[in-house]
Amino acid sequence: MPIKEGTVKCANDSNHVMITAEGNYALTTVKKVSEGNHEFKPDQGIILKVFFCNTCGYIQTYVDSKLRY
Ligand SMILES: [Zn+2]
């Protein structure tokens, strides 16, 4: 669900209030090392802004363009 009029909307119900999670979060990179095995790269990835709905549990993320990654 996109940001509409500067407000993040819940994808399940537009009347639900989305809450901004405090702190920084990341989607880390993984590298496939063999079939079924991946190595996590916690020093590589994308820094995210996280929003969640306290009513239905829906989570929405956006890349945080203000932070370098
Ligand atoms: Zn919701």
Secondary structure elements and their pairing?
Blueprint: E1 3-4, E2 7-8, E3 18-20, E4 25-34, E5 37-53, E6 59-63
Antiparallel strand pairs: 1-2, 3-5, 4-5, 5-6
Bound molecules: zinc ion.
Zinc ion binds next to loops.
Q: Using only CA atoms, what is the Rg?
A: 15 Å
Shape: elongated
Report the sheet-strand fraction.
Answer: over 45%
Oligomer: single chain
Sketch the topology as an H/E string, one letter per element.
EEEEEE
Bound molecules: zinc ion
Question: What's the helix count?
Answer: 0
Number of domains: 1
| Strands, total number | 6
As residue ranges, the low-confidence spans are none
Descriptive terms for the model:
binds zinc ion, 6 strands, 69 residues, 4-stranded antiparallel β-sheet, two-stranded antiparallel ribbon, mainly beta, 0% helix
Give an account of the 3D structure:
The chain is mainly beta. It has one domain (3-61). The protein is built from no helices and 6 strands. It is elongated. The two termini are 24 Å apart. The relative contact order is 0.29. It binds zinc ion. The site of zinc ion has 8 residues, from loops.
